[in-house]
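FORM 12-B: Structure-to-Sequence Request
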């Protein structure tokens, strides 16, 4: 998830971790000026997070009031107004949507889940993705078959931290204080996205695809449904401070997980009757005890990100079935660490096999096939929290 990624970037590169790397790092580490400057930065960043959350919650409340007003509005005949999209007169046609959340390197769990869907021949009517879920969702939208998911699996198995997050000079916690938009170039991520899809525009995908990004111009969620596919997915996965914003149609966009980490409502509003949700971690967040002010700040951000999904799950409209694969437990050691990819794929595959069997998406024969094919046995990913 976006916040987990950023906090791991701060904590995994703390001054104590780099003191042994270079003499200059030692000097910076003990400098009172650096300590004071970093403290000012942390306070300013906390204020920015609070203001951003306040604006986001206010905007969400306004959107919800508008939505409720639309649903309660009656036409001149006294019948409920027909909703746009796939609903007609309050009735829904059968429609399956696939929703993929953000989650950083833990997005590998979604690959194992997609393997099970492809082997069972499940092809959704629409796909909605956020952040790494947009990357995986775009690949599945390009080719929702076993062959297509095998291609995605091969890509994930070859990913390294250096490829996705190329290092620059001055590696350390002071990277957050440098005068530039991001710590890493998005060139490596762009190459991975290009390798995973074979369509140029979103509207050309084999399965209708929508990805969400966050506008840093007005703070709103921006749904991308047409236009250059690589740019759209790159924007949805542009982790703040890690990757630079992406310019699309005069708007500057960053990671969609900031405003909608699990785009459930988007699928409901489109008229979905069954929604398959592929998470990268538990649907609820239990914050650890904060030992530093920066940890308390990111705990608050993670709580806010998870709270929206919990509220939406509690307010599902009648006739909508939601199937959730949680993505297991545990945390990766660092946002650049892809060493658990194989274990995460296997864990996602095991969970999806059981969840889809219980909800009737898999036949007995498919369960046997999923349990006995492909992924080698691995232990669950370690919990390094």
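FORM 12-B RESPONSE
SEQUENCE OUT:
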């Amino acid at each position: 998830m976006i916040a987990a990624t950023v906090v791991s970037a701060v904590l995994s590169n703390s001054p104590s971790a780099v003191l042994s790397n270079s003499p200059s790092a030692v000097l910076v580490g003990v400098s009172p000026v650096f300590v004071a400057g970093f403290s000012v930065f942390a306070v300013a960043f906390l204020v920015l997070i609070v203001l951003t959350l306040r604006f986001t919650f206010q905007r969400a409340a306004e959107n919800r009031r508008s939505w409720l007003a639309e649903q309660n509005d009656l036409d001149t005949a006294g019948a409920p107004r027909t909703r746009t999209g796939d609903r007609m007169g309050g009735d829904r046609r059968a429609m399956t949507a696939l929703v993929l959340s953000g989650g950083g390197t833990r997005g590998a769990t979604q690959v194992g889940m997609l393997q099970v869907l492809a082997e069972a021949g499940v092809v959704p009517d629409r796909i909605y993705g956020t952040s790494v879920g947009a990357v995986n969702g775009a690949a599945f939208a390009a080719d929702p078959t076993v062959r297509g998911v095998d291609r995605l699996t091969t890509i994930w198995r070859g990913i390294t931290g250096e490829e996705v997050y190329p290092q620059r000079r001055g590696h350390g916690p002071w990277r957050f204080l440098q005068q530039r938009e991001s710590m890493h170039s998005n060139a490596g991520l762009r190459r991975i996205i290009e390798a995973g899809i074979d369509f140029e525009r979103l509207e050309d995908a084999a399965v209708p695809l929508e990805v969400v990004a966050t506008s840093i111009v007005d703070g709103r969620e921006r749904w991308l449904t047409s236009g250059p596919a690589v740019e759209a997915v790159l924007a949805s996965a542009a982790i703040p401070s890690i990757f630079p914003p992406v310019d699309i149609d005069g708007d500057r966009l960053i990671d969609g997980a900031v405003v909608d980490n699990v785009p459930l409502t988007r699928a409901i509003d489109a008229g979905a009757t069954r929604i398959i949700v592929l998470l990268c971690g538990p649907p609820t967040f239990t914050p650890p005890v904060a030992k530093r002010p920066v940890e308390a700040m990111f705990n608050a951000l993670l709580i806010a990100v998870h709270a929206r999904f919990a509220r939406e799950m509690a307010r599902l409209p009648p006739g909508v079935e939601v199937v959730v694969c949680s993505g297991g437990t545990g945390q990766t050691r660092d946002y650049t660490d892809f060493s658990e990819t194989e274990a995460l794929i296997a864990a996602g595959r095991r969970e999806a096999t059981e969840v889809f069997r219980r909800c009737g998406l898999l036949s007995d024969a498919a369960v046997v096939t999923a349990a006995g094919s492909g992924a080698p046995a691995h232990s669950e990913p370690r919990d390094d929290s």
